[in-house]
Amino acid sequence: MEDVITDRAVEAKFLNRLTFINLSALYVAIKREQSSTPQFLDTILAQYTLLLRLLRTELENTPASTDPESYITAIVRRTTPSLRLYSKWLVIHHSELPSSFWPQYVLFANALQTMWHGRSTPKLSYPLEEDLAAAGFAPLEVPPAVLDTGKRKHKRDRARIGNRKKRFDKLLLQWGRSGGDSSVTSYRDHGDEHPNVEMTLRLADLLSDAIEIASIPVCSLFYLAKGRLRPLNL
Fold first, then answer.
1. Which residues of the chain carry a pLDDT beneath 70?
2. How many C-beta neighbours within 10 Å does residue 202 have?
3. Number of C-beta neighbours around residue 132 at 10 A
4. According to the model, what pLDDT value does residue 186 have?
5. CA atoms within 13 A on the CB side of 229
């Protein structure tokens, strides 16, 4: 998998489809209480960890810059959409993951944070392609068992994927009525965005998810301190 990604033998859409397949397989296995459930989880964690490592390496090997777009490489473009899908799943299921997963995630989150050097990150105001593809995708919905109306709502309680801003739901509805066209350009208020701008939005959203997880008390492997993610007991 690493070779085909670094050699540009696969595109982002292939990795997205693979992510959907992996999450669907695990979801069905859990629902049916199949004995293969641990193997499906291991497959997801292996591929998720690989993508985290590849993207972190790209960020660390890029000269420091105040322009987030300068960090956008071919590998970043290829891996970031599927990483967003895995990230939304992680926010829901973080408590179910083994401790062996978190060191790689912490390194990734810290590398991601250096892109903005303490500056505020941009926020999504319209759905990206993977948002549209994941609309109504059951593995990314918050299970009823984990909902607690008496406690602070997490992002995944408010949206299946991404940061939903004004008119986000309406955009999804328009997309569905159009027959599921993957293009979202005609539904944006502000016209076309350069692909690198959308990639920075994806990276910023990944950091937002990391901060979300770091703020959950049960996540004892790392915490948020003065705007910086710091690993604990690794």
1. 144-194, 217-234
2. 21
3. 20
4. 46
5. 28
Q: How far apart are CA 232 and CA 234, in angstroms?
A: 6
Is residue 100 exposed (0-12), middle (13-18) or buried (19+ Cβ within 10 Å)? exposed
Cα four-point dihedral sign 170, 173, 179, 182: positive
Output the six-digit token pair for 151.
Answer: 């406690």
Q: Give 231's strand partners.
A: 222
Rounded Cα gap, residues 122 and 203, in angstroms? 9
Helices and strands in the chain, H and E counts: 9, 2
Task: Provide the 3-class DSSP secondary structure of residue 113.
Answer: helix
pLDDT value of residue 160? 43
Total-model pTM: 0.80
Cβ pair 192, 183 in contact under 8 A: no
Q: Nearest to residue 18, comparing CAs of 1, 6, 33, 42? A: 1
Q: For position 122, what pLDDT does the model report?
A: 85
